[in-house]
Design a protein that fits this description.
This protein is α+β, with helices and mostly antiparallel strands. The protein is 33% helix and 28% strand. Belongs to the UPF0102 family.
């Protein structure tokens, strides 16, 4: 076959995600949204007010941002089969990126970097139960 002959049934040498892989990605995406919904309800039920969702800063995306009195709470949501497995998905580098984005968000607050803040990690297990690790990144600051 010549390079200009397109009569062959040969497939192009381009990697195309399989339908199964694409479906897994969609399932994970929607499971993540559902986990964020559960976590947001958890915080709202405790009196916090949502400010933003999936806010993108210079360090990356912050899943949830809420107001707790005068303090801003940044939340990283992790979903897995168990709380332990979800907790293992939080990496030190991720803590640094979330912290950088959190500081950038505070630039938009009236008190700027003087605003009280904390970064929580919310763990969601396979049945949708929520466990919050409040001020989870305190050791990084």
């Amino acid at each position: 076959m010549k390079h200009w002959d397109h009569s062959s049934d040969a497939l192009p040498a381009v990697a195309v995600p399989s339908d199964r892989r694409r479906q897994r990605g969609q399932t994970a995406y929607h499971a993540g949204l559902a986990a964020e919904d559960s976590v947001e309800r958890h915080y709202v039920d405790r009196g916090l007010r949502p400010l933003a969702r999936r806010w993108r800063g210079p360090g990356g995306e912050i899943d949830l941002i809420l107001l707790d009195g005068d303090a801003v709470v940044f939340v990283e949501v992790k979903k897995a089969a168990s709380f332990d497995q979800a907790a293992l998905r939080v990496r030190p580098r991720q803590a640094q990126r979330i912290g950088a984005s959190a500081l950038a968000y505070l630039d938009h607050m009236p008190r700027g970097s003087l605003t009280d803040m904390r970064i929580d990690v919310a763990l969601v297990d396979q049945v949708g139960a929520v466990q919050v690790l409040e001020n989870a990144f305190a050791d990084f600051w």
